Amino acid sequence: MSNKKKFETEAIRTQSETTQFSEHSVPLYLTSGFVFDDAEEMRASFAEEKQRDLYSRYSNPNVSEFVDKVCLMEGAETGFAFATGMAAVFSTFATLLNAGDHVVSCSSVFGATHGLFTKYFPKWNIESSYFNINEVESVESLIQPNTKFIYAETPTNPGVDVLDLEYLSVICKKHNLLLVVDNCFATPYLQTPIKHGADLVIHSATKLMDGQGRILGGITVGKKELIREIYLFSRLTGPAMSPFNAWVLSKSLETLAVRVEKHCVNALELATYLEAHPKIKWVKYPFLKSHPKYNIAKKQMRLGGNIVAFEVEGGIEGGRAFFDAIKMCSLSANLGDTRTIVTHPASTTHAKVEAEVKAAVGITDGMVRCSVGLEHIDDIIDDLEQALNQLY
Ligand SMILES: Cc1ncc(COP(=O)(O)O)c(C=O)c1O
User: Fold this and answer.
1) Binding site membership of 157 for ligand 1 (Cβ less than 6 Å)
2) How confident is the model over 281-306, as pLDDT tens digits?
3) Quick one: CA dihedral 79, 85, 89, 94, positive or negative?
4) Is residue 2 in some structural domain?
5) For residue 52, what pLDDT band results from cuts at 50, 70 and 90?
6) What distance in angstroms lies between residue 45's CA and the mean position of ligand 1's atoms?
7) Whose C-alpha in 17, 20, 39, 67 is 20 to 30 A from the C-alpha of 87?
8) CATH number for position 35
9) What pLDDT was estimated at residue 362?
10) Residues 190 and 106 in one domain
């Protein structure tokens, strides 16, 4: 019989060691440092001859529990947890890349990641090229002798496009490149990129992992030798996750499967409703048959996720009017919360982005990104419907 338990069981039963108090729920280890019995123990611990916690910038029992859970969920060898998703993205890049290197990335990446590629990489003499999310076959033509890795997000933010992970992994192996995947929108419950050939997987734990819009967090998991380098970089530079956030997140992961399952049921129902609505120009959701990459989504995802993108009539003004008419759902920049959140990228996060760039990442003027929450689906639909009714 295999020792590996099912996803839900690992999420609940993976816990740090019980203390002398025999507590059932893991306590919060809110401590910056740890003490040693004598000089020899301290020496051996710093020399890594002895495995134990030294200082919470390096490791902490709550953080280790969170990392262990995510590794089990992702099928990863090991990992390191960060204060935010962007700290995970940046520390991973900074560890892997040297001046003179090159990265090939999907064109639709999270805005702050795009900012790293365009604003900071050139300053450090690191090049990057984007492949069109709708023409993944073009990726090979962008590879250069100095390319280090291919970077992909799937489903993408905010366009909900889907990339074929197995295809990207074949290309990476052929050219001896690493495949690094931001798996934030899917969570390991819906998609495990390592199974499809990824070397490293990154998450913003701020989203569905916490799932209740309370805290920030990030994590990178994957191959032992790569994580070791990321750990050494982070040990020096200090982007570590706080024990409190790790404690909250580890508890949140216990319910990840049931929460994400329900998010996806609600999202598919909303997407199906919107697709039939006369005031909606188009709807994109990975598990709708009309999604251009429906077959790939079905192949690599358990369910379609909680993000639905759709376009209301009337361009920018239509999008703004729709927003003003919303009563229950939240107008907020976050996603992956119990509360349904709508955003209008064209007038907010992407207001200053050039038209061609917006088009390349699937953002149109009247596009709305909806992070479908866990309220009753009838109430979510009622709110969007009353807002749509006010449009004309
Ligand atoms: C796909 C993706 N990656 C990374 C991040 C960054 O995460 P954080 O806000 O936790 O730094 C986000 C945040 O929205 C995201 O959507």
Assistant:
1) yes
2) 999 999 999 999 999 999 999 999 99
3) negative
4) no
5) very high
6) 34
7) 17
8) 3.40.640.10
9) 79
10) yes
